[in-house]
Amino acid sequence: MRDTQCLSEKVQVAYDRIMCEHMRNICISQQQLNFFTKRLNEDEKGELLMVLNTVNGGYEIEWVAESIKERMLYSESRSKNRRGKVKTYDKHMKTYDKHMEGESESEDDSNSIDKNKSKKIKFIPPTIEDVETYFGENGYSIESAQKAFNYYALADWHDSKGNKIKNWKQKMQGVWFKDENKQKVKWEGY
Questions:
Q1: Partner residues linked to 53 by β-bridges
Q2: pLDDT for 53-102, tens place per residue?
Q3: Cβ-Cβ contacts under 8 Å for 126 (sequence gap 6 or more)
Q4: What pLDDT, on the 0 to 100 scale, is given for residue 59?
């Protein structure tokens, strides 16, 4: 507002267009200035040049140039902070996006992410005996072990929401280890 309040209407329009272009470039070239002022007469061009600074063979709006410099310094600072921290990539991190990292990230970091992905442990379904033994060791009935095994085996080891089971023991504890599934009589050997 402070730059444009004393400008005529046509000069304000040119100023606004220069400002928009300036937000993308550190300064406006003579060619760009000529383009934005081609419909202005000499007096209007002089009026516009009163609010522009001449720098390095180009033109700038002081507050826009300062804003750009501050943004660049901030981005550089954030980049340095990222480089200084040890990266840990957790499979549960929902906010991490590789595309948001700068070009300065090293290739070693991306390789370590790929290595972590390849270290996934493949799920091996338990046998009926494995499930019965696990239930028995924890005080639960053979009938509930058989029900649990049949339920997941029939669903190709997916849960009720359709998610692939990754840890069958954890699933048994969370879903099947309930008071109603406790064994009435101690199993032989447990």
A1: 60
A2: 888 878 887 777 787 788 888 888 888 887 776 555 555 555 555 555 54
A3: 134, 149, 168
A4: 86
Residues 6+ away with beta carbon under 8 Å from 17: 36
Q: Beta 58-60 vs 53-55: how paired, if at all?
A: antiparallel
State how far the Cα of 33 lies from the Cα of 18, in Å rounded to an integer.
7
The answer to whether residue 133 is domain-embedded is yes
Please indicate, yes or no, if residue 2 is contained in any of the structural domains.
no
Length of the chain as a residue count: 190
Distance, in Å, from the CA atom of 53 to the CA atom of 50, rounded to the nearest integer, reads 8
Is residue 53 within 8 A of residue 61, CB to CB? The reply is: yes
pLDDT for the residue 148: 93
Domain boundary among 46, 65, 84: 65
Structure tokens at 113: 């992410």
Give the residue numbers spanning the domain of 154. Answer: 128-181
**Statement: the pTM of the whole predicted model exceeds 0.85:** no
Q: Structure tokens of 103?
A: 């070009």
Q: How many domains does the chain have?
A: 2
Any bridge partners for residue 173, and if so which? none
In a domain, 78, yes or no: no
DSSP state, residue 122: P
